[in-house]
Structure formats: structure tokens, C-alpha cells
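P.,

For your records, the input lines for the assembly:
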Amino acid sequence: MMYRRMMGRILSLFLVMMVSFACSNEESGDSQNQDNFDRATMLVHWADDYILPAYLNYQQEVIALKSAAAQFSSAPSLSLHTNLHAQFVKAYTAWQWVSFLEIGPAEAYNLRNFTNIYPTSATEIEEALINSNYNLSLPSTFNEQGFPAIDYLLSGFGDAATTVNQFSSNADYGRYLIALTERLETMSTQVLNDWNTSYRSEFISNTGSSATASTNKLINDFIFHFEKELRAGKVGIPAGVFSGSPLPQNVEGYYSDSLSKSLFRESLKAHRAFFQGNGFLNRASGNSLEQYLNYLNIEHQNELLSARISNQMVMAESLAKDLPASFSLVAANSNQDLLALYDELQKAVVLLKVDMLQALNVRVDYIDADGD
Amino acid sequence: MFTKLKYYLSQDVEAAPLAAFRIFFGIMMFSSILRFWSFGWIEKLYLQPKFHFSFYGFEWVKPLGVYTYLIFFICAGAALCIALGFWYRLAISTFWLSFTYIELMDKTTYLNHYYFISVLSFLLIFLPAQRYFSVDAYRRPKIASTKIPRYSIDAIKALLFIVYFYAGLAKINSDWLLEAQPLATWLPGKYDLPFIGSLLEKRWLHYTFSWGGMLYDLSIPFLLLYKPTRNFAFVLVVIFHVLTRILFPIGMFPYIMIVSALIFFDPSLHQRMLKFIQNILGPPAFPRHLPASNKQKNGALKKVQIGFISLLLISQILIPWRHLFYPGELFWHEQGFRFSWRVMLMEKAGYTNFKIYDPQRGESFQVNNQQFLSAFQEKQMSFQPDFILEYAHFLEDHFRSSENRGDLEIYAESYVALNGRSSQLFINPKVDLSLEKRGWGKKTWILPFNDTIYGL
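C-alpha cells returned:
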């Protein structure tokens, strides 16, 4: 009898262990949390007040870009070129608001890599457009498409008159331009549709705290983008931070020349709006990272961490405001200004990546190993 | 004194607890390795990274490409042989070697519980765990016996005692007890757990868990040793480790500790467990009539064994104190932090970038860490000084050979945050790390910690 009872106890013990094993492994996604800071409303705010309107806006601008490109290609003229370039700037600007949302459909379609890899390759574009059938869905064509490639086609040959001549004398350019804008339109429509039909509900219901939960993933995407795209891509790389000497030709929107600063500023503005929960353009504000940090009452050196982060972003904004419109010229002529901007962005990255991630206890992406 | 010791060393006890321990240990290790492999971690942690962080003095231990799988295979096979008690000494020695080799390949993956496995398996090499309920005992009745020297079971208890007690001592510090850190940072992040999720944000719960954890670690070895409290202690062990399993990404460790704690129980329990196993396996798998005792013929061998066991336990008592040789805050500089059962004490994160100055070409540039390190490696490197130095040296070698450069100067720009404090500069940015030596010397290039943590 004793033996039976003992074995029973041991078996139930193992049962407890197994249950705990199962529990801790499952993504407890649908559990309710009753605390005052409702993370679920943060996800809803992000989806409805930022992500969906920003994607919609982007898609509308890209559709307009496509028709402007078609008009120009069918009858190249100076006025249509002006028209097209203006729409190009609008679409590129709208892109800055969705660039960091590399989650769900955008992640699945590899949206950012197909949309904005720069510097683009003029040689590869010239080779590609001779062929009548281009496969733009190959990863090897990242640097032959998207905004940087359109930028090259619109401004890479010289002034507007030269471009008009180029398009008039060789129809390949027009065809390729239309293909590029169509691709942007297809991808943006796909992403927007996915969000509207299914991904929104998946996104807002994935409220857990695991590495694959929406909050964790999007925060990681946000910080990754701030560090690699905003700090490094738009400023650090052209300033030569990683190469020893400045690389003026590596700025974003290089061929349009006076675009790089405004694209940078737009992107920084988008990051700040997302962080502060301001919503997209005139949308409602709501729970976001700033409110989350304040709720946890994270204060360093008698100052709220959220305020330190916002202030640091504002600092970088005001520094950028006074720079010439072309970062390419800044890199070539007064690179120390670009380096100074880089330093301010770097401070923001430290606050986001070290202080904020620790405070929110967000695990860094794609690390799944045991701790002890 | 000497006669007492001699008497103690000559005492025999039932062999069942050690045999049961051997079986559980083998099964646990086998499943741990299976789990590790099934998660794709061999590929991810040992094959994909271009660079591996080595323990000082063990730079020669590196992953072996696809043959790394072979090491894991050998290790898993050895674990099975341990459970079966098949060629036990060879199996446990092979296990210890292969497991330790795996742990030495890259210190990015260092965990106290891996270290525990290494130490425990080393200890097991010198214990007669194959004498009872094993294939060895069945095949070679000469070595079979129902009794084993008492010290062989006590040695395992002593090791567990050290692990728990030192883990408890390390928790006696102001961050843990007065700020409830790092639990106050970690627990709210688990808000989505069913039932207890909403409680995990409560301040009082952080304190309860902190103080409870400290008291648990300090008292559990005594409660397990003392017979009247043993059952109660075991219930605590189960609750504690199951809780840590639910709250933290802690892998197999809780189960290993729960099963290990069974060694404290009376042999009758282990007898029943073995009988249970035997009932499953079928009719007697080993001779029924065993000699009560099977005194080792070779007295010299026994002395060597006792020597190794004593040496191991003494070193385990001393090694955790080596941090006393280094001035400054241990949590900050981490010199002497590893191998001392300092478990779950810190939430530490960093952001470290390297600037390389080439004096011959008069240019400087920064490094994109992701070019060389996995996300996991970069994370670990960013707040641990010995990682930072080793990586700085790697960068110098890399850029000298791949870009044909001369002597380089390597500077770190490093920010680290500890236990919810604001991030601060970590490494002296003016020190050329390419000139600093690796080793046990004091790392003077770590900047002092801005705050004070009181305690052990």
C-alpha cells in the first residue's frame, strides 16, 4: 500500500511538472489583463490610428504615382515630368510613415527591401530595362526597383529636359518606369488588403508577452528601424561613420538631390508620432510607448524616461532643420554637421534600445535561448 | 579526528539512491540534448555565427562545423549509457568531456545550470553509480553490490548544498532585497499569464518573491538534510522550481533540480522507484542476490577517487569568492561573476559600438556588429567586459588581415543599464582596447559604476 501511495505521489508530481511545462510553452494570447495600462488598447491604437491610415495614405499616393508615370511615359513633356516628380516626392514621403512597420504582411512580402534599397544600381537598371520581361520579385533585384530606382529614372540623367529626351527617344525607360510604379502599387495594395481583411484582428489579439507577440515584435521593428534605417542609413552611412570617409552618393533620394533632408525629417517625425501615440496625421492619439513608460513610472535622474526620449528626438529634429536640404552636399562639404546629427540620433538609440527595452522588459527579437 | 574521518570514509550505505540518481540524470541529459537539437539551436548557436567567444585559456575549443552535431550525438549517446549503467565509467567520462566541450565552444550561451551539469558529471565520474541496477552490474556480477561508500551520496548532497546556499548568499544585496530588482523589472512583463498575470505588477509581490527566493535558497539545503522537514522541503522545491519554470525562460533546469533533490531521501523511496521501473521492464533484469558490500580491492584507486572528490568540493567552496580580488561593483564589472551560482540577479543590457582608428591611413570608422555577430552574441557582448575585449581583438585581427592594414586602435562606445537604472557609459572610450590584454588581471578600462549596491 505504502508503495502504491508513494508511486502515486511521484506520478502526480511528474504530472504537475508536465503541466507546468505545457503551460509555460503555450502562447497565452487570449488572457485578459486587468491592470490600468491596457496593452490591448495600445495595439488597437497602433492599428487603427496609425498603421491602417498610414498604409491607406501610402497606397493612395502610390496609385497617383502610377498614373502620373503612365501619363509621362506615354507623352514625355516638361510639365508632365514636373507633375510626376512632385507625385514621386509625395509618395516617397508617405512611405516614411510605414517603412518601420515590418510586421505581418509587410514582413511576409519583404516590403521594405523591395521598396527602398539605396543606393540603387544605375548599371543594373540600364541592363534590366532592355529586356521586355523583368522579374521584379527576385531578391537580386532589390537595387533595381522601388523609390531609389524611380529616382534614378526621373533625375539620374541630368535636368528635366534631358530626362524628357531620354524617355522620348527610348520607350524602354517608360516601360520600366511603369513596371516599377505598378510593382509599388501591387505591393502596397496587398499589404493594405491583408491588414484590412485578416491581419488587423490577428495583430490586436496577439497581446502576449512572448517574443512573437505584437507588442514585442513591433517595438523591436521600431527600434531596429530607428537604429539601422534612420540613424545609419539616412545619416551615418553617407557621413562615412562606417567607412572612414563620407559617401555622399549613398543618401536617400540621391538623384533628386534636395530630397534627403526632408525624407529624414519625415521619418523622424513618424518615429516620434508612433512613440508618443499621436496617431497618423490628424488621427486620434492613444496609448503608446510614452504612456506605457509613464505608467510604469520609469524615471531616471529625476526625469521621466519618456520625456528624455522625446527630447532627444526633438533635439535631432532641430539640428536637422538647420542643415542644407541635400545631405549629399552636407556630406561632401561640411560632414561634421552630419556627424553631429548622427551623435544625437545615437543618444536616442541608447535610450530606446537599452533603457526603454529594459524598462518594458521587451526581449530582443529572434533570440530564443534559455536563461538562468 | 583522523580516526573519525577514516571511519566515515569506510561507512557504507544503500546503493539505490545513487542508482536512481544515475538513471534520472541520464534521462534528463538525454532529453535536454534532444530538446536543444530539436529547437535548431546547434545550427543557430554554433554553426551560423562566424565568430565565437571563448573562455580565457580555452580558445582552442571551437565548433567543428557539421561535426558539431557529432559531439552532440556522442553526448546524447553517453547520457543514454549513463541511464542504463552501460559501460558507466566510460559513458560518464565521455559525457563530461563532450558536454564541457560544448559549453566551452562559445561562452555566449553560458548558463549557471550548464556549469552545474559539467561539475556534477565530473563528480559522477568518481562515484560508483554502476554497482546497482545497471547493465554493468548485470553483466559483471563482480562489481555489483547493494552497498556503496557513504561519501559517494554525500558528495552529491554537498554539491547541491553549495549551489543553493551560495545562490542564497548572493541574493543578500540591496538591489534584490530593498528594490526587489530585477524581479520588479521581469515580473510585470509576464502580465499575460493566466490567473497570476495581474498580480505580477504588484510591488508587494516583487518583494515577496525576492525575500522568499533568498530565504528559500539559504534554507532549503538544511530543510532537505533534516529528516522531519524533508517532505515539506521537497514540496517547496517543486513549487519553487515549477514557478521559476512558468515565469522565466529557464529550460530544463527546474526539472533537473527537482529530480536531483530526491537524493536527500531515504533509500526506501529509491528502492520503490527502481522496483517500479523494473515492473515496467519485466522480470528481474539483474541478479537478485547481490553481495551486501563489494569492497574495492584496489585501495589506491579509492584514495585517488576520494582525493578528486575532495578537491572538487573544496574548489566549489572557494571559486565563488574569487570576485574579492577585484575592486568595484561585481555586478558592473563581472570579474568573478560566472561560476559562482549568481543566478537571476541582474537585468543588464547594453549597447556597444566599436570605432576603429587606422593611424597609418589617418581614418576612422565604426563597425556594424551584425556583420560578425548573431543577435544573441551581440546582446551578450554589449554588457560583458571580457566579451567586449575579445571582440575588439578580433576586430583588429579581422581588419588588419582582410583590409591589409597596419596597427589599429580600437575604441568602444558602450552604454549599459543595470537593474532598472539609467544607462551609463561602461567602457572608457579613450582606451585603445587593442593594447589591453585578456586574462585575469584587473580590467582598469571599465568605468566605475555610478551607484552603490550593498551586500555580498
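Two observations worth noting. The longest strand of chain A covers residues 299-300. Residues 203 and 214 of chain A are 6 Å apart (CA to CA).

Regards
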